[in-house]
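Reminder to self: tokens first, then the designed residues, so the page reads top to bottom the way the pipeline ran.
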């Protein structure tokens, strides 16, 4: 079961969804969030034509380079938005039920 995950630009109206997925599973979210958090360095690297080795991270880098100062979000192929920053460490109320679990859709 895969869930394609896309970056979105929240500073466009309506929000602009990347044409290229940044991941194929919700388990890719931590890496995508890490790249968003590291956007300044990634944008500088892309300007120098330095790209990540990973196929999906290249797409993330390309989108971030196109939206260097926009508010960026994460949306999956089902239209579900995911936080662009890492959630706080799991606590009694910090964990949404099944939020990070891939779910079978039938
Ligand atoms: Zn933008």
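Designed residues (106 positions):
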């Amino acid at each position: 079961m895969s869930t394609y995950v896309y970056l979105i630009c929240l500073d466009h109206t309506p929000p602009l969804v990347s044409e290229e997925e940044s991941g194929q599973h919700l388990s890719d979210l931590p890496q995508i969030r890490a790249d968003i958090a590291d956007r300044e360095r990634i944008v500088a690297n892309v300007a120098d034509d330095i790209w990540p080795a990973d196929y999906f991270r290249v797409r993330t880098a390309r989108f971030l380079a196109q939206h260097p100062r926009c508010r960026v979000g994460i949306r999956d192929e089902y239209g579900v938005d995911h936080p662009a920053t890492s959630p706080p460490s799991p606590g009694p109320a910090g964990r949404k039920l099944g939020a990070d679990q891939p779910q079978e859709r039938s």
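The helical segments are 29-37, 39-47, 55-66.
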